[in-house]
Design goal:
With 79 residues, this protein is mainly alpha-helical. Helix content is 38%, strand content 0%. The longest helix has 12 residues. The termini are far apart.
């Protein structure tokens, strides 16, 4: 079994510098988000990050804080 989900081969991130998706603290995520919003597997990527509770980087167009807020809203909590 592959260590990466099947959809990862179709992600536009595979054609982009990984550092764009994992910037240093305070770094810009604007380019990563632009790539994500144009990507056909964005939903799969976001679902993966939410399911695995990924705590780093931009996944599916959202930062970790944005994913945490989304999860809190979905669960009826506050972030």
């Amino acid at each position: 079994m592959s260590q990466h989900p099947d959809w990862t081969a179709n992600g536009l991130c595979a054609e982009t510098d990984p550092a764009e998706f994992f910037p240093d603290k305070g770094g810009s995520v604007a380019r990563a988000k632009r790539v994500c919003f144009a990507c056909d597997v964005r939903t799969d990527c976001l679902d993966y990050a939410l399911t695995t509770d990924e705590q780093h980087g931009v996944w599916g167009g959202l930062t970790v804080r944005e994913r945490q807020r989304l999860t809190a809203r979905t669960l009826g909590g506050a972030a």
